[in-house]
Amino acid sequence: MRELSSFPTLADAIILSHFTNTLVGAKGLESESVLLFLKDTFTVPHHTDLEHRDLTEVVAEASGPSGFSCGKLPNSTLTFDKTKPFRKAWFDTIFYHGAEWSFWHDVSEISKFTMDSYVSYGRYHHELNEDNQNLFSASEVPSFEMWWKMLGAPQLNKIMPVCYSGFFAVKARNIMHAAPALARMQNMLERGDNIIEGHYAERSFAALLLPQLPENITEQLLCLADAFRRCKGSAGYCGTLYGCHDARRCTRLVSN
Known about the structure:
alpha+beta; 3-stranded antiparallel sheet; 12 helices
């Protein structure tokens, strides 16, 4: 990793596009160079039901064959907040407490993802005026499924990775491979700051930047999972695979 750069708190994909168009191109980074992405809200408590990984561990993992590593991953000991029993997803979350949550998401379910409103956990949400806040629901992209089609990205398989919080490391070659979709993403995100497209983008980075799994591995993960979180009532993590069956029942899939 050659350098760290600082950016204003804007839509994540605009930052990614900056790296694609400027660092990787103009500065001629080697394809195996690793870029680390962090928001300026990195230290603000958010997604507290995910495990915050060490920076060196994330960069080291991204230096491997896949060229990507997520900085926050599901942790079964953090997935249920007993101190907030009246939050929107509390009754939904309680049924999944203690179950292993996965980095992988069911595509048929996450395709339904959408949101009506959102208040940022960052330090800048108070700076957004009323007109900007109203932009959130003024989108012409009604669901994640439509968003992915508009990106023009490769068709998703049965499951896809999702890396929340905009904290990840990725090789330059992975970024260049996804450059066309990232450029289209940037155009769609220029509508404003606090917009639903930003949440679609957050759920897109890992799938755009990580090579797709072989079909037999996909089937194995689906076999091992108990089920996935439904979008209704748990929009934040809808589609997340959870639980884990005995691996012996999926042996046949591994051998194929």
